[in-house]
DNA sequence: AATACGGGGTC
DNA sequence: GACCCAGTATT
C-alpha cells in the first residue's frame, strides 16, 4: 500500500509519461499497485475508441447480454455472431426461452457445443419467469444462483447490463492481467482466479464497471492475444506492462499442462431404408446429451459384426458397404470412427421403435445432429419422393 | 482439486 | 498435431 500509484487525474498519456514506466517497473510490489489508478483509465479510453461493433452491443438489454455471455463461454466471437442473431430473433425474451420446446432449442444451439449451456439457460429462464417476473435480477448474488451462471457470467451481466461494480474474470482477463503484473501463477487454478477477482474488485472504477471489464476482455481478444505474439505496439498499457518490459510475454500466462485425451474407437451405421436414414436420440445425460445421432457402437467392427448389430436392431440387412474412416476430436475424447452403409428391408423398419427414419431435409429441420457425425451424415439422402 | 462437457480456429 | 478459447457443474 505504501507504493500506491496516485490515481489518474488528467490526460492519460501525459499522466503516464510523467509517473509511470520507470517507477512502476522497478519496485516489484504487489499486483494492485501496478494496476491501480493508471491501468483502468488507459484501457477504458482505449476500449471506447477501439471496441468492435458486435450484435449484443447494439443496445443495453440484460437478456441479450446473458445470451451472448453464455454463447461466448469457450467460444469465439465470430462463431457466436450468427447463432446469437438467430437465437434472439426466435426467442426474444426469457419467457420465450422458458417455453421453447426442447427440439427447437437444440436446433438453435446445434454446432455451438457444450449443450448443457442452453439447457441450463432454459432452466434459469424458468426461474427468472417464476421468481423475478421475467426480468433478470439486478444482483450479482441472485444472478450467481441461476443455473449456468457462474462468477464470470454473473460479473459480466451485472457490470455490463446493470452497471454493478463486480469483476468478470475470464481467460482473457487472466492473461492480460498476468502479463501486466508479470505474474507466474498458474491461471488454471481456481484460487488464482479468486485472487484475481479480489484484486480487480479493489481497483475497478465504480462509474463504468462494464466498460472496465469489457476493456480487459477486448484487449485480451484483440491485442494481448493467446496464441502467437501479442500486438504490444497497439497496446494502451505497453509502457507499464511488466511482461512486455521484460520480454516475457511468451512465458506468461503460466498454465498447467493438461491431461491427454483418451482415444475411443467407434463404428457408425448409416442404415438406409430406400431414401430414408435411421437416426436415434442420445441419452439425456453425458456426452452430447439429448441430441440425435446415427446409430453407432463402441469398437471397430467388421462388416459381419456390423450386420449382426443391425439384425439385433430388428432390421433386415440387404446390403453393406464399408465407408471411409473419420475422426472427431472433443476436448477430452478422440473418436476414431469407421462407418458402414447398410440398406435394410423397408418392411422391417417399423419394428424398432427407438429408430427414426428421416431424410436429410427432415433432419436438418427437426433433429440436432452434432458435428461429430458429419463425415457420415453426408450419406443421408436429400429428399423422400 | 479434478473431471466432464463441443467445436472450430491458429500456428 | 498441439494449443487455444468471453466457463460451469459435478464428483
Automatic annotation (TrEMBL):
Q: Which residues form the HhH-GPD domain?
A: 71-222
Question: Which Pfam families would you find in this protein's record?
Answer: HHH, HhH-GPD, NUDIX_4
Q: Which SMART domains match?
A: ENDO3c
The record's section on InterPro entries has: A/G_AdeGlyc_MutY, DNA_glycosylase, HhH-GPD_domain, HhH_base_excis_C, HhH_motif, MIG/MutY, MutY_C, NUDIX_hydrolase-like_dom_sf
GO molecular function terms listed in the Swiss-Prot or TrEMBL record:
hydrolase activity, acting on glycosyl bonds
Q: Does the keyword Manganese apply?
A: no
* Record Gene3D superfamilies: Helix-hairpin-Helix base-excision DNA repair enzymes (C-terminal), Hypothetical protein, domain 2, Nucleoside Triphosphate Pyrophosphohydrolase
Q: Which UniProt keywords are given for this protein, alphabetically ordered?
A: 4Fe-4S, DNA damage, DNA repair, Glycosidase, Hydrolase, Iron, Iron-sulfur, Metal-binding
Entry's transmembrane regions: none
The EC code for this enzyme is 3.2.2.31
Cofactor dependence is on: [4Fe-4S] cluster
Similarity field:
Belongs to the Nth/MutY family.
What job does this protein perform? Adenine glycosylase active on G-A mispairs.
| Protein name (record) | Adenine DNA glycosylase
Q: Which organism is it from?
A: Blautia caecimuris
Lineage, opening ranks: Bacteria, Bacillati, Bacillota, Clostridia, Lachnospirales
Amino acid at each position: 500500500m505504501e507504493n500506491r500509484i496516485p490515481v489518474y487525474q488528467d490526460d492519460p498519456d501525459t499522466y503516464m509519461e510523467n509517473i509511470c514506466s520507470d517507477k512502476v517497473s522497478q519496485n516489484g510490489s504487489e499486483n494492485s499497485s501496478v494496476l491501480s489508478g493508471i491501468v483502468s483509465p488507459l484501457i477504458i479510453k482505449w476500449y471506447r475508441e477501439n471496441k468492435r461493433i458486435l450484435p449484443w452491443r447494439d443496445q443495453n438489454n440484460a437478456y441479450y447480454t446473458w445470451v451472448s455471455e453464455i454463447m461466448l463461454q469457450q467460444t469465439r466471437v465470430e462463431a457466436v455472431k450468427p447463432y446469437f442473431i438467430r437465437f434472439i430473433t426466435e426467442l426474444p425474451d426469457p419467457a420465450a426461452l422458458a417455453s421453447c420446446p426442447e427440439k427447437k432449442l437444440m436446433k438453435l444451439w446445434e454446432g455451438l457445443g457444450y449443450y448443457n449451456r442452453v439447457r441450463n439457460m432454459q432452466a434459469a429462464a424458468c426461474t427468472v419467469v417464476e421468481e423475478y417476473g421475467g426480468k433478470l435480477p439486478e444482483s450479482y448474488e441472485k444472478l450467481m444462483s441461476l443455473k449456468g451462471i457462474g462468477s464470470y457470467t454473473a460479473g459480466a451481466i451485472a457490470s455490463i447490463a446493470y452497471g454493478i461494480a463486480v469483476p468478470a474474470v475470464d481467460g482473457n482477463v487472466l492473461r492480460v492481467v498476468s502479463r501486466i503484473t508479470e505474474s507466474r501463477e498458474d491461471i488454471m487454478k481456481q484460487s488464482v482466479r479468486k485472487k484475481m477477482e479480489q484484486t480487480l474488485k479493489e481497483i475497478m472504477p465504480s462509474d463504468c464497471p462494464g466498460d472496465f471489464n469489457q476493456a480487459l476482455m477486448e484487449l485480451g481478444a484483440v491485442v494481448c492475444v493467446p496464441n502467437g505474439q501479442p500486438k504490444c505496439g497497439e497496446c494502451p498499457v505497453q509502457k507499464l506492462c511488466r511482461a512486455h518490459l521484460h520480454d516475457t510475454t511468451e512465458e506468461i500466462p503460466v498454465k498447467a499442462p493438461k491431461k491427454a485425451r483418451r482415444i475411443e474407437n467407434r463404428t457408425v451405421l448409416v442404415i438406409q431404408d430406400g431414401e430414408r436414414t435411421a437416426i436415434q436420440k442420445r441419452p439425456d445425460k453425458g456426452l452430447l446429451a439429448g441430441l440425435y445421432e446415427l446409430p453407432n457402437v463402441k469398437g471397430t467392427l467388421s462388416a459381419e459384426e456390423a450386420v449382426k448389430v443391425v439384425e439385433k436392431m430388428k432390421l433386415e440387412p440387404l446390403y453393406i458397404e464399408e465407408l471411409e474412416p473419420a475422426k472427431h476430436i472433443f476436448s477430452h475424447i478422440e473418436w476414431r470412427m469407421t462407418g458402414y452403409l447398410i440398406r435394410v428391408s423397408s418392411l422391417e423398419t417399423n419394428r424398432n421403435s427407438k429408430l427414426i427414419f428421416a431424410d436429410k431435409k427432415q433432419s436438418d429441420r427437426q433433429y440436432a445432429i452434432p458435428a461429430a457425425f458429419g463425415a457420415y451424415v453426408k450419406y443421408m439422402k436429400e429428399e423422400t419422393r
